[in-house]
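pls read this stuff:
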Amino acid sequence: MATAIIILAFIGLFVGTVVLVKFPAIATEVYTVASTLIDYMGQASGILWFFLPKTLTLTVLALVIGIEVIIRAFMIFLWVYNHLKQ
């Protein structure tokens, strides 16, 4: 229970920090490439759903993305910790 509260506090701190940062506008080329990639992924998912059930695919995809986010957040935490330790 205490671990969950600490994790939620870190998530809240991270989200609060990201909200306060003013990011520059995204270039049109980057937006176009990202939009094209999303379109390609949408078309490919239709082919994937032909062979696998849609609910299974979406569940596994959500788990993979969630695990990847946790791993990346942990790597950022370790990077900050190592730089503060020096």
